[in-house]
Structure formats: C-alpha cells, structure tokens
C-alpha cells in the first residue's frame, strides 16, 4: 500500500472516530482545568492527573479506573497509570477507528451480554479481551527481544 493510500485511510479513521474524540477532548479539558496535563503520542491526546484523575483513582469499583479511552483521547488517573496502560488503551483507539460512532454502544452491549450471562462485564467484554491479548502479545515480544539482545552481548 502506498504512503498516500495509508494517509487517506488514516484520515478516514480519524474522521470516523471524530464524534467520540470530541467527547474525549471535552472531558480532557475538564481534567486540564482541574490540574491535569496533556501530551500527544502516536496521534493520540493523552490527558492525566489533577483532581479529576485522583477522584477516579480513589472511587470504589466499578467507578474506579486507571485509564479510559474516548476516540483518539486517553484519560488516565496519573502519569504512571498512563505509562502502564498505554499499549492497552491504544488498542482501544484502533477499535474506535474501526467502529467509529458505534463503538460506545457496541462496548456497552458486549458488557451487558456478559453480565446477563453471569460473567464479568469488563473482563469478558470482547473489546477488553482483544486489548488484553494485544497487550500480552507486545509484552511477550518485548521480553523475548530483550532476552535476545542480552544473549548477543
């Protein structure tokens, strides 16, 4: 695929996810107002910290989270959580690119389906399973490449 075709597909993916991204930006701006920070990595706005981050970090389950993705925006409770969850959350960014405006309802329906069948609505959610699988795969690749480079020394 040519670089022009890749650029066009990326533009379509960003456009498809834009309604969700706008919601994420709005939530991120609230974090900024209350002391949060933002930086950009791989085309994603990553907000973290401040009063809002601390608030969600200290809530009881299921209202507590380390990070949540809304379109091309990741909202994390703190920088450490963001670093630890970045791979997982970037899988969700790609899911938003594929599902667009249908991602949030599809995610909710997947959770509801699992709950109705007596399973955990978060851990058994098909989107979370995919994100955890990709995260595990990348960690395995990183550890095997690290062992290879140490063995070559």
What does this structure look like?
This protein is an alpha+beta fold. It has helices at residues 3-33, 50-57, 79-99, 103-116, 126-152; strands at residues 37-41, 44-48, 67-69, 73-76. It is built from five helices and four strands, in the order H-E-E-H-E-E-H-H-H. It has a four-stranded mixed sheet, with helices on both faces. The protein has a domain at 3-101. A hairpin with a 3-residue loop joins strand 3 and strand 4 (73-76). The model has no long low-confidence stretch (mean pLDDT 93).
Percent of residues in helices comes to: 55-70%
Instruction: Flag low-confidence runs.
Output: none
- β-sheet strand percentage: 5-15%
Question: Radius of gyration, Cα only, in angstroms?
Answer: 17 Å
Helix-strand pattern: HEEHEEHHH
**Distance, first to last CA:** 37 Å
Strand arrangement across the biggest beta sheet: 1-2-4-3
Counted by DSSP, the helix tally is 5
**SS-based class:** alpha+beta
Strand runs, count: 4
Residue-averaged pLDDT, rounded?
Answer: 93
What keyword list fits this structure?
153 residues; alpha+beta; 4-stranded mixed sheet; 5 helices; 11% strand
